[in-house]
Design a protein that fits this description.
The chain is of the alpha+beta class and 225 residues long. It folds into two domains: 70 residues; 117 residues, no CATH class. The chain is built from five helices and five strands. A hairpin with a 6-residue loop joins β1 and β2. α2 crosses α4, α2 packs parallel to α5 and α3 packs antiparallel against α4. It starts with 12 loop residues before the first strand and ends in a 15-residue tail after the last helix.
Length: 225
């Protein structure tokens, strides 16, 4: 791959959502580079990388687009490569991923709204795990009693619930950026515990079992219900 060079005779700007600042804003191309796929000495496909800068926050973004032979380069075909969006693991149920994606979109621009939507995402987790009590607190306690989440997680989810209530009702309490980061990190850790880690362990056991004679017994995960 060539080093990034100044783009020539290509569009140099597009309007796009910036994950750094949460604004839909002009992004400026500050450099580009091309990687070629070669067959029989001929380039059959190229991947064009665009290094871009947000005109609102000056954050750096990387986009990429694939072009086949001479179908022409178009900056607007390029997709965001970095920073990644929320991207919860595909093993997380779609309804929860959708709730979290909605929260993630306002993480920077509206911490209060983010807190409210994370609370809704917790409700989605409870529903997916088969628990729907009259309140979120009761649902979370039920998950603890069923050993679907550990007690330390339950204590933190109570904090998230309380912060979510601040956002949902008019009070003097405000949700700040540092709280948003803690809430986001914790929610993703909870998702990892409930959905991702058990799936990874099952995959690992299956792979190890194939190499064992006799096969190793599988260990049931309480988080899987």
């Amino acid at each position: 791959m060539n080093d990034f060079e100044n783009p020539k005779q290509e569009p140099t700007q597009r309007v796009e959502y910036c994950p750094h600042c949460g604004n839909t804003t002009p992004l400026q191309v500050v450099g580009s580079s091309t990687s070629h796929d070669v067959e029989d000495g001929q380039s059959v496909c190229e991947t064009r990388f665009y290094l871009m800068s947000c005109k609102t926050c000056t954050g750096t973004l990387l986009f990429a687009a694939e072009y086949v032979q001479d179908d022409g380069r178009d900056l607007h075909r390029a997709q965001l490569v970095w920073p990644t969006k929320s991207n919860l693991d595909i093993r997380v149920p779609a309804a929860i991923r959708e709730c979290y994606e909605e929260a993630y979109q306002v993480k920077v621009t509206s911490p209060m709204a983010f807190a409210v939507l994370i609370r809704r995402s917790l409700e989605a987790v409870c529903s997916d795990r088969g628990v729907q009590k009259r309140s979120l607190a009761a649902s979370l306690q039920a998950l603890v009693e069923q050993d679907q989440i550990p007690l330390v997680c339950a204590d933190m989810t109570k904090v998230i619930k309380a912060i979510g209530n601040y956002g949902a009702h008019f009070t003097d309490m405000k949700v700040n950026a540092s709280q948003v980061k803690v809430i986001d990190d914790f929610f993703r850790a909870l998702i990892e515990y409930v959905y991702v880690a058990p799936a990874k362990i099952s995959d690992f056991q299956a792979r190890i079992g194939l190499l064992s004679e006799p096969p190793l017994p599988l260990i049931e995960s309480k988080a899987n219900g």
